[in-house]
Each structure stands twice: as structure tokens, then as C-alpha cells.
Amino acid sequence: MSLASWFRWNEPPNRISQRSPTEMVVETLMMELSWQMKQAEKQQRERENEYRRMKSGVDYGWLVSYPKHSYDISPGERLQLEDMCTKIHPSYCGPVILRFRQVVAEYEPEAQEVSRLFRSVLQEAAEKIKEEEEAKKLARQWNTKNRTSLSLTTFKSRSRISPFISDIKTISEDVERGTQPNRRVWSMPEFRNTK
């Protein structure tokens, strides 16, 4: 291996690193859609061949040449689906693909129906993401409210322990009433020198 080819193989893929996570999610999900559409076409051809074979009793499938990928979605629909894909958080990309594959396996759609199923899976995921974000928002509000009420509770309990209004007489109260203050008694014991 030459030094130039070694550098070419070991240099970091700049194209990947320059894309944002959202762009990577859109590309991954759209590639999955394209692959599922090709698989649906393939299965549709196999079903048609099986039907012809059963009907005629002879298999002419080896004579027929099919285009590799004949069905494609319209540019407008593609843009709509890509826009929906941008709403999917990267952490949901894998679960969305798994759910899409599950739905396709369950319904065994024809090629033109695959994009409709894909759209429904994206809508379902977007709604779930929105619900989870709202739940997190409510939890944050609840935690903030609890902290506030907890601090008020603590304040109220402190006021019960040492209330603002008390029976302890102060000099300022006596001055306000115009009376002579009582002689203060110190609580500290006297130490006498006894011999």
C-alpha cells in the first residue's frame, strides 16, 4: 500500500462531520423509506409471479426483466416527509425505524402505500415526542412549585417556632408607651469570691 493511499483511507470523513444531527436523521429516515419501497416492489413482483405461475402452471418469471426501482414519490411529497423527519429528535431515529419496519411487516403494503405508512409512523413519533416534552415541562414546573411551597412552609414553621409577636418586653415598647423600663435582670450567674 502506498503512502498516498494510506492517507486517503485513514483521513476522517469530512462530509459526515460537517452535517448536523438533524440532517443525518433526515437522510437516515429517507434512506429507510427508499429501501422499504424497493422491498415492497420486490415482494409485489414476487406475488404477481406466484399468481401467474399458479394461474398458468408455467413459470415464465425468468424471462421477464423488471426495472430496478420503478416507483418513486413525488418531489412535493418527498419535501413534506423530509420536513416531518426534521421534527424527529436523533435519539428517536432508531425507534422510528424499528416501528416503521414493524408496520411494513404487519401490513405488507404495495410500493405506493409505503410512504403513507411512513408518514403515519412519523406523525405518531412526533406526537409522542411532543407529549414527552410537555410532561418534562410540567415536571419542571411542578418541581419549581414544590421548591417554592417548601420554602414557604419552612418560613411558616420558623414563624411558629419564634413568632414575630412575643411576650418578651423590649425597651422600645416601653419607650413607645411612655413607661419606665423595668430593671433588666441578667441571666448570667454571679461569681462571688468566697473565702
TrEMBL record:
Q: Which residues form a coiled coil?
A: 30-57
Per the UniProt record, the lineage of the source organism begins with: Eukaryota, Metazoa, Chordata, Craniata, Vertebrata
Report the superkingdom from the record: Eukaryota
Name the record gives this protein: RD3 protein
Protein's GO biological process: retina development in camera-type eye
Instruction: Give UniProt keywords alphabetically.
Output: Coiled coil
Supply the Pfam families for this chain.
RD3
